[in-house]
Design brief:
By secondary structure, this protein is an alpha+beta fold. It is built from 7 helices and 4 strands; from the N terminus they run E-H-H-E-H-H-E-H-H-E-H. Helices cover 39% and strands 17% of the residues. Helix 3 crosses helix 4. Bound molecules: inosine-5'-diphosphate (IDP) and magnesium ion (MG).
Amino acid sequence: MSGNRTFTMVKPDAVANGHMGNIIADITAAGFKVVGMKYLQLSAEQAGQFYAVHKERPFYGELVSYMSSGPIVAAVLEKANAVSDFRTLIGATDPSKAEPGTIRAKYAQSIAANAVHGSDSDENAGIEASFFFSNLELVL
Ligand code: IDP
Ligand code: MG
């Protein structure tokens, strides 16, 4: 994967609260092209695997049960400087600290239920995209 792709999820709280369409609209309005998209619910085992890097953090159990609590949208996005521009678009992990107008400021409930995921590096974007998508499933 080159530096122009990132991976996102619309998390269970945002889907359950009806923000899925608005969040995808904000993402595409910001210039990101969707190259892959799936609507699915993770099992606790799958959520635990996806977030394995956070295994030692105190909120890991809460994160795994929350991320498997309802359906999500998983997507691969394309744009120049995708990883860093997308992190700017979503705002800080804690929505009370997120810049006004960012997706988390607009739609997140709490530091745990914070509406969206965004990869933090090109390397992780590649790993996370391939957790959900084969290359054959991505639009060129
Ligand atoms: P990020 O999603 O902004 O990259 P990370 O530190 O990688 O933030 O944490 C991954 C996810 O774990 C967060 O998006 C959030 O859902 C959850 N999380 C992070 N910090 C906390 C916390 O202090 N309490 C509960 N959940 C948290
Ligand atoms: Mg992170």
